[in-house]
Amino acid sequence: MTVVTRFAPSPTGFLHIGGGRTALFNWLYAKRHGGKMLLRIEDTDRERSTDAAITAILDGLKWLGLDWDGDVVYQFSRAARHKEVAESLLAQGRAYYCYASQQELEEMREAARREGRPLRYDGRWRDRDPSEAPEGVKPVIRLKAPTEGETIVEDEVQGRVVWQNKDLDDLVLLRSDGTPTYMLAVVVDDHDMDVTHVIRGDDHLTNAARQTQIYQALGWSVPKMAHIPLIHGPDGAKLSKRHGALGVEAYRSLGYLPTALRNYLVRLGWSHGDQEIFSTQEMIDAFDLGSIGRSPARFDFAKLENLNGHYMRQANDEDLIAAIEEILPEIGDERGIGAPLVPALREKLTAAMPGLKERAKTLVELLDSAYYLYAQRPLRLDEKAASLLSDGRSRLAGVAERLEAVSEWSAQSVEAVVREHAEAIGVKLGQVAQPLRAALTGRATSPGLFDVMAVLGKEETLLRLRDQLKDAPAA
C-alpha cells in the first residue's frame, strides 16, 4: 500500500501557524513512508473563499519548503461528483429527501436550547414518503445514519474514540440548491484521491464520526485517522494573535528562516527523545504518529527566536543576504533600503555578516544591528548612544588624527591605534571604545568595534567621527 496523505486548507484566510504544522506532519509522514502528500483547496464556501487566500496558502507552503505531489485539487470543481454520490446513496435507500422548513428547524433548535440538550435533527422525514412533501419546497438530502450501536474511530493519536449512534443525527449531504456539504465533499474527495491517512487538528474529531458513517454507508474503506491537538499560547489559552496565531507569511516578514520555523513546528506536539535540532532528513527519518502527544502544544516565541538564532549562525552568509532581500519590499522602506541591495551595501553586509549573525535572533534584528552600514550621515544616535558619546566625547579628541595616519586599514591596525590613544590619555580601552562605537554606529551595541571600522573603511569612519566630534573639547 502506498501511503497517501493530504493537506486540505479552506482558502478563507492566510496559512496560519497551526495549518503550517498540519501540512508539515502530513508531509513528513508521507516522506517517511515513501508515499505522497496531496494538496486540496476546500473552496466550497464560495462567499468566503478568495484567490488572495489561495495564493497566500501556496506561497506559505513553498516558503516552508513543503512540496506536494500532483496538481492542486480544487474541491468546488468536483461538485458534480459529490452530487452524484449523494444521489447514489438516495437510490440505495441509505439517504432520504428531507423537506423540513427553516421554521421547523428553528423550532427544533429552540426546543433543544430550552431543554438544555444538543441540537439534533429529529428524523421527521426519515421514513416519510416524498409524496407528502409540501408544495414548492426544495429538499435537502440527509444521510440515513444508524440509530443504534456505536461508531468507533481507532485514532492514531487519540486512541479508540467511541460515539453512541443515538447521539448522532442524520446529517445533510446535499443542500437544497444541490451543493454538497463539507462532510460529504471531504469523504468523496479523500476516497477518490486514494487518501490512506487523514492527519488533521483534533477540532475535526467529531467530524471523524460523521464521516466514518458516510464511508460505511458507501461501503468504502475508512482511511486511518490521526487527530493532533491544537496549538495553545504559552498561558494555555487558545492560540490568538497575541500568542503567535499569525499567517506563515508574517513569520517571514518578522525575519524567521523557513528551516528554523519548520524545526520549531515539528517539535510542537511531537517529540523524539531530548533532540531539539533536526535536519530535514532527520525529521523525515524519525517522524511517527505514535510520538504525538494528546495535550495541546504551547507556542513559545522565545524558543522560536533561540532556534532561529541557531539557524542564522549556521547559515551561509550569502543565503542570509538573499533572505534579507526577500523581505526588504516589506521592511526596507522604513529603513531607507531598497531591494535589491545596491552593490556597495551588499559588499559591506557580506563583510560584516560573520559578526552580525552571531548576535541576532531574526533577520529583522540583524538588519537593525547593521544600521551603521546603511545609515545616512550625519548619523542619528539612539538615546543610549547619545548618552555614551556625551559622556565620552572628550576622550575621542585626537583619535581622528591618529586614525588618519593609518596606511593599511584593517581591524588589527585600527585596534592598535585606538589602544595607543587610550594609553596616551591614561584611560582603559573601553572608555574610548564605547563613545567611539556610539559615534560610528549610532547605537550602544554593535558587532566588534574594530570589525565595524574595517567594514566601514577609512574614509567613512573618519567622516562619521568628525561629524560627531565637532566642537569637542580637548582631552
From TrEMBL:
<keyword id="KW-0436">Ligase</keyword>
<dbReference type="InterPro" id="IPR014729">
    <property type="entry name" value="Rossmann-like_a/b/a_fold"/>
</dbReference>
<dbReference type="InterPro" id="IPR008925">
    <property type="entry name" value="aa_tRNA-synth_I_cd-bd_sf"/>
</dbReference>
<keyword id="KW-0547">Nucleotide-binding</keyword>
<dbReference type="GO" id="GO:0004818">
    <property type="term" value="F:glutamate-tRNA ligase activity"/>
</dbReference>
<dbReference type="InterPro" id="IPR001412">
    <property type="entry name" value="aa-tRNA-synth_I_CS"/>
</dbReference>
<keyword id="KW-0030">Aminoacyl-tRNA synthetase</keyword>
<dbReference type="InterPro" id="IPR004527">
    <property type="entry name" value="Glu-tRNA-ligase_bac/mito"/>
</dbReference>
<feature type="short sequence motif" description="'KMSKS' region">
    <location>
        <begin position="238"/>
        <end position="242"/>
    </location>
</feature>
<feature type="domain" description="Aminoacyl-tRNA synthetase class I anticodon-binding">
    <location>
        <begin position="345"/>
        <end position="468"/>
    </location>
</feature>
<keyword id="KW-0067">ATP-binding</keyword>
<dbReference type="InterPro" id="IPR049940">
    <property type="entry name" value="GluQ/Sye"/>
</dbReference>
<keyword id="KW-0963">Cytoplasm</keyword>
<dbReference type="GO" id="GO:0006424">
    <property type="term" value="P:glutamyl-tRNA aminoacylation"/>
</dbReference>
<protein>
    <recommendedName>
        <fullName>Glutamate--tRNA ligase</fullName>
        <ecNumber>6.1.1.17</ecNumber>
    </recommendedName>
</protein>
<feature type="binding site">
    <location>
        <position position="241"/>
    </location>
    <ligand>
        <name>ATP</name>
    </ligand>
</feature>
<dbReference type="Pfam" id="PF00749">
    <property type="entry name" value="tRNA-synt_1c"/>
</dbReference>
<dbReference type="InterPro" id="IPR020751">
    <property type="entry name" value="aa-tRNA-synth_I_codon-bd_sub2"/>
</dbReference>
<feature type="short sequence motif" description="'HIGH' region">
    <location>
        <begin position="9"/>
        <end position="19"/>
    </location>
</feature>
<keyword id="KW-0648">Protein biosynthesis</keyword>
<dbReference type="InterPro" id="IPR033910">
    <property type="entry name" value="GluRS_core"/>
</dbReference>
<dbReference type="GO" id="GO:0005524">
    <property type="term" value="F:ATP binding"/>
</dbReference>
<dbReference type="InterPro" id="IPR045462">
    <property type="entry name" value="aa-tRNA-synth_I_cd-bd"/>
</dbReference>
<comment type="similarity">
    <text>Belongs to the class-I aminoacyl-tRNA synthetase family. Glutamate--tRNA ligase type 1 subfamily.</text>
</comment>
<dbReference type="Pfam" id="PF19269">
    <property type="entry name" value="Anticodon_2"/>
</dbReference>
<comment type="subunit">
    <text>Monomer.</text>
</comment>
<dbReference type="GO" id="GO:0005829">
    <property type="term" value="C:cytosol"/>
</dbReference>
<dbReference type="InterPro" id="IPR020058">
    <property type="entry name" value="Glu/Gln-tRNA-synth_Ib_cat-dom"/>
</dbReference>
<dbReference type="GO" id="GO:0008270">
    <property type="term" value="F:zinc ion binding"/>
</dbReference>
<comment type="function">
    <text>Catalyzes the attachment of glutamate to tRNA(Glu) in a two-step reaction: glutamate is first activated by ATP to form Glu-AMP and then transferred to the acceptor end of tRNA(Glu).</text>
</comment>
<dbReference type="GO" id="GO:0000049">
    <property type="term" value="F:tRNA binding"/>
</dbReference>
<feature type="domain" description="Glutamyl/glutaminyl-tRNA synthetase class Ib catalytic">
    <location>
        <begin position="3"/>
        <end position="305"/>
    </location>
</feature>
<dbReference type="InterPro" id="IPR000924">
    <property type="entry name" value="Glu/Gln-tRNA-synth"/>
</dbReference>
